[in-house]
């Protein structure tokens, strides 16, 4: 699958937005978790599944497969992201069916697939890749999201964003 055209995934043009809620399955290995470096940032709220029963705020959309394509029209909503293996994420999704589902336009992953038992969807991304791509679609600031992601350069290159990222890093 080829990456989305640049006009579909735009970049950093946003004002403030609600915090992104990341629901992490309790079986997720924190040492392998791509979003772990985001803990403590004020624009992210972490919850543990199935331990926390806190209600979700109104006006959120959930990232996943099979929904309408996420667009800049969703920028006024908060973002709910489920973080787990694909098998566990499918089970988690049932609890959040009331949150409108949105799907990313095609984006290519750089995360190496390692499961010998279960296959990931061909359009599956590492959670941090999905968040980065969603922030771009929504026009939210992506600064610092990929700073500690080992495959960031490859991910940006595969999706045609490497030159743009380098420009932002060198601009005053």
How do the helices and strands line up, and which of them pair or pack?
Elements: E1 20-25, E2 44-49, E3 60-63, E4 78-83, H1 86-93, E5 101-102, H2 127-138, H3 152-158, H4 162-170
Any overview of this molecule?
This protein is of the alpha/beta class and about 170 residues long. It is built from four helices and five strands, in the order E-E-E-E-H-E-H-H-H. The chain has helices spanning about 85-95, 125-140, 150-160, 160-170; strands spanning about 20-25, 45-50, 60-65, 80-85, 100. The chain has a five-stranded parallel sheet with strand order 2-1-4-3-5. The radius of gyration is 15 Å and the shape is globular.
The secondary structure category is: alpha/beta
Gyration radius (Cα, Å) is 15 Å
Point out poorly predicted stretches: 1-14
Q: What is the share of helical residues?
A: 10-25%
Strand order of the largest sheet: 2-1-4-3-5
Mean pLDDT: 83
Elements, N to C (H/E): EEEEHEHHH
- Sheet with the most strands, sense and barrel status: 5 strands, parallel
Shape: globular
Our measurement of the CA-to-CA distance between the termini, rounded to an integer number of angstroms, reads 35 Å
Our estimate of the beta-strand percent is 5-15%
Number of strands: 5
- State the helix count: 4
Outline:
This protein is α/β, with parallel strands linked by helices and 172 residues long.
Question: What descriptors fit this protein?
Answer:
single chain; 172 residues; alpha/beta
């Amino acid at each position: 699958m080829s990456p989305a055209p640049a006009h579909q995934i735009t970049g950093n043009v946003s004002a403030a937005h609600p915090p992104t809620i990341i629901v992490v399955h309790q079986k997720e290995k924190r040492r392998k978790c791509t979003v772990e470096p985001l803990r403590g940032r004020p624009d992210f709220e972490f919850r543990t599944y199935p331990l926390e029963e806190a209600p979700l705020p109104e006006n959120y959309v959930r990232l996943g497969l099979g929904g309408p394509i996420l667009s800049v029209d969703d920028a006024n909503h908060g973002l709910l992201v489920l973080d787990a293996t694909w098998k566990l994420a499918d089970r988690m999704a049932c609890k959040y069916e009331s949150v409108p589902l949105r799907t990313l336009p095609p984006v290519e992953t750089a995360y190496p697939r390692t499961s010998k038992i279960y296959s990931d969807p061909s359009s599956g991304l590492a959670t941090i890749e999905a968040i980065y791509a969603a922030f771009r679609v929504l026009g939210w600031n992506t600064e610092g999201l990929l700073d500690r992601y080992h495959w960031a350069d490859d991910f940006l290159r595969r999706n045609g964003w490497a030159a743009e990222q380098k420009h932002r890093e060198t601009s005053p």
